[in-house]
UniProtKB/TrEMBL annotation:
Domain of life: Bacteria
Protein name from the UniProt record: DUF3046 domain-containing protein
Pfam family, one: DUF3046
Higher taxonomy: Bacteria, Bacillati, Actinomycetota, Actinomycetes, Micrococcales
Species the sequence originates in: Pengzhenrongella frigida
Length: 77
């Protein structure tokens, strides 16, 4: 998963404004008590950050990948 794909999913799954707010404000224990945005800035793998964000917010697997039926779910790393 690339950074642009991460941010596109954030906006698609959570909404443009709310998704950016979540990424900037939601502290995630799975990311060492950092936000998703901090983890991305620190160079963490976007796939790992995406899974941590979705897990913390209990996003069902069926909703995690947006509406693009051709989008492959990135494997957990």
């Amino acid at each position: 998963m690339r950074h642009r794909e991460f941010w596109a999913l954030v906006e698609e799954v959570f909404g443009a404004a709310y998704g950016r707010t979540l990424a900037a404000d939601q502290v995630l224990g799975a990311l060492g008590n950092r936000t998703a945005a901090q983890a991305i800035e620190d160079g963490d793998e976007p796939r790992t950050v995406w899974h941590a964000l979705c897990d913390a917010l209990e996003v069902p697997e069926a909703r995690r990948w947006g509406t693009d039926t051709y989008r492959a779910a990135p494997p957990r790393g």
